[in-house]
TrEMBL record:
Domain MOSC intervals: 14-168
Protein name listed in UniProt: MOSC domain-containing protein YiiM
Origin: domain of life: Bacteria
PROSITE patterns per UniProt: MOSC
Organism: Microvirga guangxiensis
Matches recorded under SUPFAM superfamilies: PK beta-barrel domain-like
GO molecular function: catalytic activity; molybdenum ion binding; pyridoxal phosphate binding
Entry-linked InterPro entries: MoCF_Sase_C, MOSC_domain, Pyrv_Knase-like_insert_dom_sf
Amino acid sequence: MQASVLTVSRSATHSFSKPNRDTIRLLAGLGVEGDAHAGETVKHRSRVKADPTQPNLRQVHLIHAELFDELDAKGFSVAPGAMGENITTRGIDLLSLPVGARLQIGPSAVVEVTGLRNPCIQIDRFQKGLMKAVLDRDSEGSLILKAGVMGVVLTGGEVRPNDPVSIILPPEPHRRLERV
């Protein structure tokens, strides 16, 4: 199966969920045009409070639709955009990508993966018990964060549902994603 975009979402406010759109425009070095989290420096409230001059490594939030399938099997009903992601993909294991992996999305946009989304209490406020459902443990007992990946826009462009997504891996050695 070809990896592709399932939905695109954006919100001009710092709301938890983002409405789905027909298209979004990615802006190089900034993020999603018209989204509250777009900008060269951090826009997430907790990060702004800590240090508003930090570079924004969370310009674009991507979640794999397979997570929603997994959550559905656990009794949760989560639709694309509901967990605040800008791009919902299908057919790509986002969590296994290394730091610096580049995602060519549609005809021109390129997003570089910077790290894992750091799940917060808002997830449980959205649906009780959902926070625990987006966390797991590997065979060594290390925490697995499953709420998507974050990235920065290297090359802008329009992104729409059904756009293909291809992966360009960075040179080895690869670094595992950590929360950003």
